[in-house]
Design brief:
The chain is of the alpha/beta class. It folds into two domains: 183 residues, Rossmann fold (3-Layer(aba) Sandwich), CATH 3.40.50; 84 residues, no CATH class. Helices cover 42% and strands 15% of the residues. The chain has 14 helices and seven strands. Strands 3-2-1-4-5-7-6 form a seven-stranded mixed β-sheet. Helix 6 crosses helix 7. The protein starts with a helix and ends with a helix. The structure holds S-adenosylmethionine (SAM). The site of S-adenosylmethionine has 19 residues, from loops. S-adenosylmethionine binds next to loops.
C-alpha cells in the first residue's frame, strides 16, 4: 500500500470487520438528527475508525471508546498517554521473523508490562494477515509469499496517525469494560443525549476473528439491553438470519461490505436504529462519499 493510500485511514490498527467505510453514513445520520457536537460512545471500539473520523471532523465533542480486549485497551492508552515512546518503537522495531516471534511471546505472556503488551498487539496487528492478532504472519513463516511481514508497516504513516490521535487525547476516554456493563451504565442510560454505536463481534465469524467473541445468549442479552436504552443508538452486524430474527422489532438496513479478512469476498451487513432516529435514505451506508456528506452539511446549515 502506497503512502497516499495509507493517509486515508485514521486508525493505526487494522481491523477485521472495521467500520471505517460507514463513518460517512454516521455523519449523515448525525446531520439529519441534529446530533452534531454530542458525545459518542463505542463499546466495541476495536480500531475505533468511526470514532476517530467523527472526532477529527468535529462531528462529536467527546469519544468514549471501550474494548474488553486488554491488548487493544493498552494500545489505545499508550497512544493517548505516551505517543512519543510508541512512535520511537514504531520507527526502530526490526521487521523480521525473529522479532515477530518475540512479539508473539510478549503478547501471550501474562507478565508483560502494559506498554509492551500494547506494542506487541500493534506489531502483530500490522504484520499478520488481515490484522488478526492470533493469526498467521503476512508472507507465511518461510516469508515466501509475494507480500512480506513489512507490507502493512509504513513507519512514518503509522506515526503520523498516532500523533494525530494523541492531539485529541483530552476528547477521548478509553475503557476496558464488558460492553453490557457499559450499555447499562449512567454514561449511556443517563440524561445526557449521547450517540451510542454498537459493532459487536460478528455472529457467524466472530470466533475466528477476535480473541473475545459472543455466544448466542450474549447477542440476545445485548439486544435486550439496547432495546431499553432511551438515547439514540445504532447497531451493526453481519446479516445472518439469527440476527435479523433477534432484531425483528427494529427496521433493518442491509448493505454489502468488502471484508479484508477473506480476500475479495463481500458480506451482507445490517444496521438497526433506535426508533427515535430518522434514517438517511441511501443506497448503501458503505458507499457515502465525502461529496455526499458536504452536500448534506450545506443543506443542513441552510435550514
Ligand atoms: C467487530 S469488532 C469492532 C470493530 C470496530 N468497529 C472497528 O471499526 O474497528 C468487535 C470488537 O469487540 C470487542 N469485544 C468482544 N467482546 C466484547 C465485550 N464483551 N465487551 C467489549 N468489547 C468486546 C472485540 O475485542 C473486538 O475488538
Amino acid at each position: 500500500m502506497g503512502k497516499a493510500q495509507e493517509t486515508r485511514y485514521s486508525s493505526p490498527l487494522r481491523y477485521p470487520g472495521g467500520k471505517g467505510k460507514v463513518a460517512n453514513f454516521i455523519k449523515l445520520l448525525m446531520l439529519e438528527n441534529s446530533l452534531i457536537g454530542c458525545d459518542y460512545v463505542e463499546p466495541y471500539a476495536g480500531g475505533a475508525s468511526v470514532a476517530l473520523s467523527l472526532l477529527f471532523e468535529d462531528y462529536i465533542n467527546h469519544a468514549y471508546i471501550n474494548d474488553i480486549n486488554n491488548g487493544v485497551y493498552c494500545f489505545w492508552r499508550l497512544t493517548l498517554e505516551d505517543p512519543n515512546s510508541l512512535c520511537q518503537r514504531i520507527m526502530s522495531v526490526p521487521l523480521t521473523m525473529d522479532e515477530w516471534r518475540r512479539q508473539k511471546l510478549v503478547h501471550s505472556s501474562e507478565s508483560s508490562a502494559p506498554e509492551d503488551l500494547a506494542f506487541a498487539t500493534f506489531y502483530l496487528n500490522r504484520t499478520n494477515r488481515s490484522g488478526i492478532v492470533s493469526g498467521g504472519v503476512i508472507g507465511g513463516i518461510e516469508q515466501s509469499g509475494t507480500w512480506k511481514l513489512d507490507a502493512r508497516f509504513n513507519r512514518e504513516a503509522l506515526c503520523a496517525r498516532v500523533n494525530k490521535i494523541a492531539k485529541f487525547s483530552a476528547r477521548i476516554t478509553v475503557s476496558k469494560l464488558d460492553a453490557a456493563e457499559m450499555i447499562e451504565s449512567n454514561l449511556v442510560q443517563g440524561d445526557v443525549r449521547r450517540l451510542l454505536y454498537l459493532d459487536p463481534p460478528y455472529f457467524v465469524k466472530g470466533e475466528g476473528l477476535y480473541d473475545n467473541f459472543y455466544a448466542f445468549e450474549d447477542h440476545q442479552k445485548i439486544r435486550d439491553a439496547i432495546s431499553k436504552t432511551p438515547g439514540p443508538w445504532v447497531v451493526s452486524y453481519d446479516a445472518s438470519p439469527e440476527i435479523l430474527q433477534l432484531y425483528s422489532q427494529h427496521n433493518p438496513l442491509c448493505y454489502t461490505l468488502s471484508y479484508s479478512a477473506s480476500k475479495a469476498s463481500k458480506g451482507t451487513e445490517v444496521m438497526f436504529f433506535s426508533p427515535n432516529l430518522a434514517i438517511p435514505q441511501v443506497a448503501s451506508p458503505a458507499g457515502i462519499s465525502v461529496v455526499d456528506v458536504a452536500r448534506a452539511k450545506s443543506a443542513a446549515t441552510l435550514f
